[in-house]
Every structure is written in C-alpha cells, then in structure tokens.
Design brief:
The complex is a heterodimer of chains A (about 375) and B (about 300). Chain A is an alpha/beta fold and about 375 residues long. Chain A is built from 15 helices and 5 strands. The chains are: A alpha/beta (about 375), B alpha/beta (about 300). Bound molecules: adenosine-5'-triphosphate and magnesium ion.
C-alpha cells in the first residue's frame, strides 16, 4: 500500500503556478490594486446619516431628582437610549471601550448641590466618535438641552427664575477621534471590505477557473493531493491580502494620519482570523459554483449585505433592528469594530473577545456547510 | 505487488452512475503490457467515464480490478504516479507558457532532474524556439503534441489517451501513431479511445462500448467475425433510387454510402442475398458480396444499441 503524504515540492509548484497566473491575469491584477483605490476614493466622501437611540451608559454619582430629569431630557432628544446605569466609572469606561455603549454620561456627585447654588455643575458626555457621522447629530442635540433640561424642576424647587447662562455646563468629549475625521473610520473599514472582496472572489475564481477550463482534471490526475491543491492555490491570495492590508495601513497612517493606538501584532492576528473566515467562504462558494460566473454572483450576493449592513456604509446603530440582526452574522461587522477598536481605541484582547468569537463561529458554520458540498474527485 | 508483471489493466464489473443515469455497466477489460488497445463507441457511451475510473479520477460504484497491479479503488495515488492520462479536452494551462506547463507537470510528479527533463521534452517536441509562448496560442495539433509530451514526462508505464487525435490533420495523426508504436515497442501499454476507423485498425486489440455496455472486444478480425455480418457492395448509377427500393426489404439492416458505392449489411445472409437478387437492378448496376469491415460492424452495433446511448 502506498500512502500519500503532503509534498512540499509539489506544494511549491502549485504556488509558483498560481503566482504566474495571477501575474498574467491583467483583470484580476487590476482588481487587486484597483478596488482599494476606487473604494478609497468613493468612501472617502462618507455618507452622512442620522441614527437615533444610541446606547448610552449613565454613571450618576448623584441620584437626585435633577439628575433623573437630566437623563430624561437626554432621552427625549431621541438620540440617546439609556441602556444601563453603571455602578462605577471604570465599568462605564469598559462599556464604551467594548463598543457596547456609544456614549457615557457622567453626572458628578455634587450635581444637585451645585445646581441649587447656581454654580453650573459640569456634566461630562463622552462620545465614541470612531464613526463620527454616527454621533455628530446626537452631540449637537446635547448642547441644545443644556438650556432647557432642568427649567421646570428648578422653578419648582428653587422658586426663582433661571440664570441667563444654562444651569448645567455640558462638556462633550469626542473620544478616540476627537476631530471627527471621517477617514479615521473609513480607512479601517476599507481594510475589511477589501479583504472580503479579495479573499472570497479571488479564491472562488481561482478554483472554479480550473474546473471551468478542464484543467482541474489534469491537476487531479497527477499525484497532487487535494490538500496541496487547495492550500497551494489559496496561499498566494493570503499574501496578496496581506499586501493590501499593508498598503491600506500605510495609507491610513501617512495619507490620512489615522492614529494607531493598539498593538499591530494584535491587528495582524485579527486580520488573519478574518482572512481565514473569508477564505472558507470562498472555498465553499467555489465548490458549489459550477463556473466562474456563478462564483462571482455568489460573492456579490454576500458582499453587498456585508458592505451595507456591517456599519461600513451606514452607522450600524442607524439601521433597523432586522438589518442589525443580519449585520451581526456577518464577519465584516465584527471586523470593523475590531479594527477600529485596535487602531483608534488601543483596545486589548480582553475587550476584543466579544467581537472575535462571532467571526470564528461564522467560519466553523461555513466549514460545516462546505464539507457537504466539497467534491474530492470529478464525481 | 506491482511493477512489470501481469496485465497493465485488469478490471471486472465496474459500474458508474451519475444520479439516476447508469453510465458504465459491468465493464470488464484487460489490457496486456506493451499492447495498444483501442476503445471505441459513440458519443456519450461512457468512454471518458471508463478511462477516468481506470486512473482514479472517478470512484466506481461497484466492481474491482487493478491498473499496473494497483487496486483501482484503494491505490489511486500509486496509479496516478505511473499512468499518463491525456484528457479529451486540452487541459494544460493556456495562460502558462509551454515550458512553464511542462515544468509544473514535472513538479507535480516530484521529478528531481526537472530542468533537464523539461529542456529535453521541449527539444524533442521541436518547440525549443517557442518554449516561452503561451500554450493557449498554439494550434490544435501543437496543443495535442504538447499534451502528449506532458503526460510522457514522468515516464509512465501506461498511457490512457482520450481521443488524442480529434481535430488533428492526417500528417500529425500519422506522426502521432508512429510515436505510439515506438512507445509500445518500449513496453509501454496504451489504451486509446477514438472515433477513427483507421486508428481502430491500427490497435492490437479493441473494445466497443455502447450505452455503457461493452458489446465487442478482441482483435479487429475477431470483432468483425463475432458479429456474423454479411456485407454487399452495390455500385452503379442512380444509387439513391436503389437505396430507396432496398430499404425495409427482409435481411437489409443497414445501407451506408461509401463513396461511389453503398454497403448493404445484415446478419441474415440468406435473406439479404434474396432481397438483393429479387431487386431488378438496372443496367450498369453491380452487386457484390464483400468482407464486412470494422466500420460496417460499428455502424451495425451503433444502430442496435438503445436510444439512450446517443444522448
Ligand atoms: N460528471 C458528470 N455528471 C453527470 N453526467 C455525466 C458526467 N460525466 C459524464 N456524464 C454522462 O455520462 C455519459 C457518458 O459520458 P462520457 O463522457 O463518458 O462519454 P464518452 O463516451 O466519452 O463520449 P464522447 O465520445 O462524446 O467523448 C454521458 O451521457 C454524459 O452525459
Ligand atoms: Mg469522451
């Protein structure tokens, strides 16, 4: 009995062949370079929208009627939805870092005392401004309520007229992206969309192309093992993907001046997980698709919702609930949060985990489905 | 066991279904070492499917056997290393150059002296000056020669050639067959599928498959004899009218034009002779009994097969 073992030499051969073919294929090559450029241009001019009901955490060190009225006034603007009351400051900070909350409202302990004395207490509203379009309207609404929020309470309790400057001093802090630079959000987002595109489409095409042209039969008739063929065909695209990542990050850093707070190593790890998830999908598509056209159609069928519902194109929290539900299944949604978290917030692994496991779960699900479709021979 | 003793191909009862379609039925076939074995049959009869099962590209639903001594079901990896398979459709990479294609194939077989083997192959092909041309830019005849060179690169002991000369000019076909004879003389076994009668006649032995079932096998003479076919050649003016009158007469099974004559064949010799005699042939008409050829036999076999064979 002859056992067949993975042959490094054959694997290199497949790799070399794939590289030559990519190099010769002008259209593919153009897509690899052209898509990032095109998307940078297109999405550099981000679309402004107006999401409401943004999750807000309130940390109230003072639990008087005044602070409750103030919170109610915030909610009445329609932009804020208080999802939880934080027991302490650290907890509130953790929630904004994880992205569970878009805003943290901190009401100081001496809030009502200062109000009563007419000393204009400070309220701190911290906004997660990684996606500036998502928070800009909410931030301006905050400024408007400063004057009106407590009018009725103060008249009742103090029995005197309200001082001319607003009774509360609301300090807004745009966290992570203080100037609200759209590119800060767009550039990390591009990383995700371009990887999705390259990984799924290119691997899908590379494999269905062989099947469509009949060359797969030749490949299978040689001693090359399926695992060598599959990985040998995929690895070049992983490299291409990493080159794209490097290009975009360089552009982010030096053209758009996007800050890089977190660990680049962690970013690389996250990128590799994301690439793996997309590759499995690409392979699954290629084993279902009968030809390149079908592989292409399947890719776009997946790519469109990824772009539209992941929070890349429109602020995630501005989408209807059903759309958010779909969005949460897509790896890109979580990848965007991860990249923004690492680049703009400097988040560590502990905070990122809630976004990592959905990508891994997606990948496992695809593998399970894909195994049913995988065709080992020509059958 | 493996190696150089025993038949090159020896399979019994291979079956293959695609969905509900029974594409190959109980294929039993044996090819000797150094033999050129012809594989004939109409379109869709299961030739390609059979060949794919022999070289481990398709798993038979049932049946067993060996190819070069290796089990066709369990030892496909060993078979692939020692068999050269030339696909019906050109299946090298059109966006790779001639040299890159050969180099890739050599790598797939893990050949150590790759550069030398590829250089020699290019030289032998007579393509040394065009080795950096893309394979897709070659003419059909050259593609076929390149494909043959590619599947000979690893010095296989058995060649499976699926319609290797389809669409190739007569001169290239003759060269091709000279090469096949040369290889067979070196002890390489060859199974070749074809639709050409002259090629069938060049094979040491042949088999005819129809609708997935082997209907005949043996040397050309044996295949012809086994059909007990009687053939008459009719010549003269206005053959169209003669053909019309012959059609449907007892014993007349097939009427096939052959240039200036028509061949009339049937298995019932007496009835056929009676029908021809009773026909009052005009002046200048001449009917003569001839030996049935391979083509007469195949046409007769083809027409007898159920219709599903021709799908
Ligand atoms: N992968 C497949 N899936 C489904 N049906 C198939 C497949 N491959 C072949 N068939 C069917 O099996 C039958 C036999 O096909 P095959 O290619 O073996 O015939 P062939 O004798 O090689 O014909 P040709 O002379 O035209 O090359 C055909 O009816 C074909 O439609
Ligand atoms: Mg065929």
């Amino acid at each position: 009995m002859s056992r067949s073992v993975f042959s490094y030499r054959r694997w290199i051969g497949i790799l070399v062949k794939e590289f030559i073919q990519v190099k010769r294929d002008r259209l593919t090559f153009g897509m690899i370079v052209g898509i990032p450029v095109l998307q940078l241009l297109l999405f550099g001019f981000a679309i402004n929208t107006d999401p409401k009901n943004l999750p807000t955490v309130v940390y109230a060190a003072d639990s008087s009627i005044f602070s409750r009225s103030f919170v109610a006034a915030l909610e009445n603007t329609g932009y804020f939805k208080v999802t939880s009351l934080a027991p302490n400051e650290a907890e509130a900070q953790r929630m904004i870092a994880e992205g569970v909350a878009q805003f943290v409202v901190t009401i100081p302990a001496d809030f009502s005392r200062k109000l009563a004395r007419g000393e204009r207490p400070e309220v701190l509203v911290e906004a997660d401004a990684t996606d500036p379009t998502a928070v800009s309207n909410a931030v301006s609404a905050v400024q408007r309520i400063a004057a009106t929020a407590l009018t009725r309470d103060l008249q009742g309790v103090l029995g005197r007229s309200i001082p001319a400057p607003p009774p509360v001093d609301i300090r807004v802090q745009r966290r992570y992206n203080p100037e609200g630079v759209v590119a800060y959000n767009i550039v990390p987002g591009l990383l995700g969309t371009i990887l999705t595109m390259t990984m799924i489409l290119m691997t899908g095409l590379a494999i269905t192309r062989e099947r469509e042209r009949g060359t797969f039969e030749n490949l299978l008739s040689t001693p090359a093992l399926p695992i060598e063929v599959m990985t040998g065909k995929i690895v070049p695209y992983i490299l291409i993907g990493l080159i794209q990542v490097a290009l975009i990050l360089l552009a982010a850093r030096f053209v758009f001046g996007v800050p890089m707070q977190g660990s680049l190593l962690l970013l690389l790890g996250v990128v590799l997980i994301f690439i793996a998830a997309n590759l499995t999908l690409g392979i699954m598509f290629s084993s279902i698709a009968r030809n390149q056209l079908q592989a292409m159609q399947m890719t776009f069928f997946f790519f469109l919702p990824s772009i539209l519902l992941s929070g890349f194109m429109f602020p995630f929290r501005g989408m209807p609930e059903w759309a958010q539900w779909i969005g949460n299944v897509l790896p890109l949604t979580h990848f965007l949060l991860l990249v923004r978290g690492i680049l703009l917030k400097g988040n560590g692994l502990d905070v990122l985990w809630p976004q990592i496991w959905p990508i891994v779960a997606f990948m496992l699900a695809v593998i399970l489905i894909g195994l049913r479709f995988y065709r080992r021979t020509l059958d | 066991m493996n190696g150089n003793s025993g038949p090159a191909i020896d399979v019994t009862g291979l079956n293959k279904h695609f969905g509900a379609k029974h594409v190959v039925r109980d294929l039993t076939l044996s090819v000797n070492r150094g033999e050129i074995f012809g594989f004939l049959g109409p379109n869709g009869s299961g030739k390609t499917t059979s060949i794919r099962m022999l070289c481990g590209l398709l798993t038979p639903d049932s049946g067993s056997g060996t190819c070069l001594g290796f089990d066709v079901i369990r030892e496909t990896a060993a078979i692939k290393r020692e068999v050269g398979y030339m696909t019906q459709r050109f299946s090298l990479w059109e966006d790779l150059t001639i040299r890159e294609n050969l180099d890739f194939v050599a790598r797939m077989y893990g050949m150590h002296d790759r550069t030398r083997v590829v250089a020699e192959a290019v030289e032998e092909l007579g393509l040394a000056d065009r080795r950096d041309q893309l394979a897709g830019e070659l003419s059909g005849g050259w593609k076929q020669r390149l494909a043959l060179a590619a599947c000979l690169l690893h010095r296989p002991k058995l060649l499976l050639l699926d319609e290797p000369t389809a669409g190739v000019d007569p001169k290239a076909r003759r060269d091709f067959w000279e090469e096949i004879y040369r290889l067979a003389a070196q002890g390489i076994s060859v199974l070749v599928s074809t639709h050409y009668m002259d090629e069938a006649e060049r094979c040491h032995r042949l088999a005819y498959i129809s609708a997935g079932t082997l209907l005949a096998k043996g040397t050309a003479a044996e295949v012809i004899a086994a059909q007990h076919l009687t053939a008459w050649s009719v010549s003269g003016p206005d053959l169209v009218e003669v053909v019309d009158r012959l059609r449907g007469k007892p014993g007349v099974e097939h009427i096939t034009p052959f240039g200036a004559t028509v061949h009339v064949t049937g298995r019932d010799a007496a009835a056929l002779e009676q029908s021809l005699k009773s026909l009052t042939l005009g002046p200048g008409h001449h009917a003569e009994r001839i030996d049935a050829g391979l083509e007469d036999v195949f046409i007769s076999l083809m027409a007898r097969a159920p219709d599903e064979a021709r799908q």
